[in-house]
Amino acid sequence: MAKFIAYFRVSTERQGKSGLGLAAQHRKISEFVVSAGTLIAEFCDVQSGKDDSRVELQRAIQLAKRENAKIVIARLDRFSRRVSFIAGILEQGIGLVCAEMPTATDFQLHIFAALAQEERRLISERTRAALAEAKHRGKILGLNSRNLAAKNRKAADEFASQLREKLDADLLRRSYSEIARHLNDRGIMTATGRRFYPQTVKNYLTRVGE
After folding, report:
1. Domain that holds residue 86
2. From 76's CA, which of 98, 161, 176, 196 has a CA 20 to 30 Å away?
3. Cβ distance 38 to 30 under 8 Å?
């Protein structure tokens, strides 16, 4: 039976925490894998689709090579809208399956990626034109973004404070790796619903001054 590695991507920590987008991806992949093979691992990046430097994806690729497994994604646009990015993955000999269209060939994936890339370019052009028009009319731009950023920072600070309260003095004297292991063993998840890593622990504790 075929082996699959699930790869998910959400654009923001807020999406990851709320399950917005992530839950739908889980559902699509689960529905596909149940009749196609075995799911051996899952990886998720919280990153913009424009950014190709994805740590979790690279881990998924390395595991796929070792286990002779295929990487399964929910939707092509959740993976990337750049033809060059998708081509680069396929050129490494990695089997890539899209749960939304499981019978698509590599050639078809290239075509769909090209269409998605063009769609993104058109959206970007329309957005720039709309912002230019709003600015011309004297509208203050960026206010909603600043409010959202402030809200996200507050939520992150609150989560970091709650996390700090879960750690006693003895645990705080240990390494970030040990703290991460302790949190994972207790089933405690990050604000985005993921496992803790040493850097994750460091980032959260830095927010509250350890």
Report:
1. 2-112
2. 196
3. no
